[in-house]
């Protein structure tokens, strides 16, 4: 409902009792042992079947693979402290991928909060209609938000950016994200307005007191009743500050302004702090979907509120962080020492040490091919990628051929495909050299390392460049372990999974012997 125009015309005559001049809020807290349930369940995106990835779900116990719109109201219990809230709230879960062997280990949820913000608006804020389905965030994303890492929650302020990761720490020195990270190579981007948050995963352990790594998801608050509660792809919009003052946010005419909900999901990442090296431009956590970037973070919601209770909370409660259960109008609060839990309706192993993510989701994102595996598995599956065998009889590459591509790489030669350990890198002079977004090539990496005064250059995972003067803790691999096309030039090879295409500056040993490989790596030619 949108009373702004009426209010402007009748100012002084008609009080718009429902409009709000300042924000009030109340945090919905959960209780019990872990979330309501975890498993490959998603009645919005994958009704009636196993969903593609594991979710952690909170709220009403009638959560199921298929849900009728009013099914939640009959839940026998809810993991929300407020009994009148039988809604369901869910997000993907988090795994740790052990850098020493590639196994996945489930990261326990620490806890979850859902903020209910009642923002300043000229509209009347109404409760969620029962059965309303919403999804925020995009499960397909593996690249940084185009508008940057900061949240954008106002359709008048640019492209909406609703999700972030927050890394609470006792000190932000060094920062949680490398300065000037472009978010394309192993680590996300810090929010320019908030040292504690960013888009994509950080590369530091989040050691804030009782506050480990946190997934943050804002939901839109404008509902189009014409679209209906089921139409999750089109029924919601973020509000707009257009034409308003005082920080008010309004919905379009004919739409209904609902509470703005915000999920905070804390994951117990400090359990793994000793198992990876921090501040090195990469990190070991991976979403249950196989996303190693964190950009695909998303949340889902089905409303199961007693609408009368929620309307009273909207109108009268500003309990803030002390919790919605402290609102005078919240109704019965469940103080049970028991826990409201239901079984995983897609029975399979999802906790503990796993060799594959449930649903068999391959790791994706950050320069890894669709079939790429863990940082240090030189996966045998990689050799199934179609790479013509390298001819050993290829003719000698000439200096002019090389310089036609890049004069600075003249005088460099291919040394071979070498293993790289993501916790102890083989080339340590410069790690993740910044060659620009999507621009990494083997020739470009050689030029970069040459200019920086190094004698070795190595490319890895299609989009990473390293420089150094010696290879440490690395051994030579089969040639076909280096089989990924460079992001900046598909005719060149840029290493593989935990495999470096290593190049050496002329004048050092062995620079003559691998010219055929060199030619294949920098020109992609096969005879
Ligand atoms: C889920 O739905 C099935 C089929 O309708 C039903 O048998 C089952 O009891 C439901 N599970 C829960 C936890 O409500
Ligand atoms: C990588 O290095 C770490 C630390 O030195 C070591 O524990 C681990 O076994 C190594 N992994 C591989 C695959 O060599
Ligand atoms: C990888 O290491 C973890 C933790 O050290 C261990 O639990 C797991 O069994 C190992 N996986 C393999 C395949 O050895
Ligand atoms: C989600 O992201 C993918 C990949 O960038 C894009 O193609 C798609 O349009 C996005 N979906 C929505 C609903 O924005
Ligand atoms: C309170 O919570 C317990 C544990 O989840 C549950 O068994 C019980 O039914 C709940 N009581 C009410 C009135 O919802």
UniProtKB/TrEMBL annotation:
Region (Disordered): 357-408
Protein keywords: Signal
Domain of life: Eukaryota
Keyword Signal found: yes
Sequence ranges assigned to domain WSC in this UniProt record: 411-506
Signal peptide: 1-19
Keyword Signal: yes
Pfam families, per the entry: DUF1996 (PF09362), WSC (PF01822)
Compositional bias of kind Low complexity: 378-408
The name this protein goes by in its record: WSC domain-containing protein
Organism: Penicillium cinerascens
């Amino acid at each position: 409902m949108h009373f702004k125009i009426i209010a402007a015309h009748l100012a002084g005559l008609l009080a718009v009792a429902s409009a709000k001049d300042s924000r009030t809020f109340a945090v919905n807290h959960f209780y019990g042992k872990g979330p309501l349930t975890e498993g490959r369940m998603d009645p919005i995106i994958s009704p009636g079947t196993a969903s593609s990835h594991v979710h952690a779900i909170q709220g009403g116990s009638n959560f199921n693979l298929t849900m009728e719109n009013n099914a939640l109201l009959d839940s026998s219990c809810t993991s929300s402290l407020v009994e009148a809230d039988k809604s369901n709230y869910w997000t993907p879960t988090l795994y740790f991928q052990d850098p020493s062997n590639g196994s996945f280990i489930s990261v326990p949820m620490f806890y979850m909060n859902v903020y209910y913000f009642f923002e300043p608006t000229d509209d009347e804020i109404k409760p969620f209609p029962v059965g309303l389905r919403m999804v925020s965030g995009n499960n397909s994303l593996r690249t940084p938000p185009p508008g940057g890492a900061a949240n954008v929650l106002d359709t008048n302020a640019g492209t909406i950016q609703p999700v972030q990761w927050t890394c609470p720490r006792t000190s932000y020195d060094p920062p949680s994200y490398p300065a000037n990270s472009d978010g394309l190579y192993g680590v996300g981007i810090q929010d320019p307005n908030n040292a504690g948050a960013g888009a994509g995963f950080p590369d530091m352990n989040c050691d804030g007191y009782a506050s480990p790594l946190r997934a943050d998801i804002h939901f839109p608050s404008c509902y189009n009743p014409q679209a209906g509660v089921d139409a999750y792809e089109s029924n919601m919009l973020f509000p707009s500050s257009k034409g308003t003052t005082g920080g008010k946010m309004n919905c379009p005419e004919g739409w209904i302004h609902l509470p703005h909900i915000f999920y905070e999901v804390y994951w117990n990442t400090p359990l793994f702090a000793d198992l990876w090296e921090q501040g090195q431009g990469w990190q070991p956590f991976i979403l249950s979907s196989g996303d190693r970037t964190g950009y695909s973070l998303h949340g889902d919601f089905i409303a199961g509120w007693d609408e009368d209770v929620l309307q009273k909370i909207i109108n009268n409660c500003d309990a803030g962080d002390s919790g919605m259960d402290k609102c005078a109008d919240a109704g019965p609060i469940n103080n049970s020492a028991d826990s409201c839990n239901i079984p995983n309706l897609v029975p399979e192993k999802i906790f503990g040490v796993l060799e594959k993510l449930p649903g068999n989701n391959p790791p994706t994102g950050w320069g890894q091919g669709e079939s790429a595996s863990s940082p240090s598995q030189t996966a045998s599956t990689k050799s199934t990628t179609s790479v013509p065998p390298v001819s050993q009889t290829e003719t000698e590459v000439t200096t002019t051929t090389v310089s036609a591509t890049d004069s600075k790489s003249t005088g460099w030669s291919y040394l071979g495909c070498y293993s790289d350990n993501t916790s102890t890198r083989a080339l340590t002079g410069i790690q993740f050299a910044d060659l620009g977004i999507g621009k990494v090539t083997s020739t470009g990496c050689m030029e970069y390392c040459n200019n920086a005064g190094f004698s070795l250059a190595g490319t890895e995972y299609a989009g990473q460049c390293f420089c150094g003067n010696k290879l440490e803790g690395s051994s030579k691999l089969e040639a076909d372990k280096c089989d990924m096309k460079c992001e900046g030039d598909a005719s060149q090879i840029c290493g593989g999974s935990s495999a470096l295409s290593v190049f050496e500056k002329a004048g050092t040993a062995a620079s003559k012997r691998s010219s055929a490989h060199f030619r294949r790596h920098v020109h992609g030619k096969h005879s």
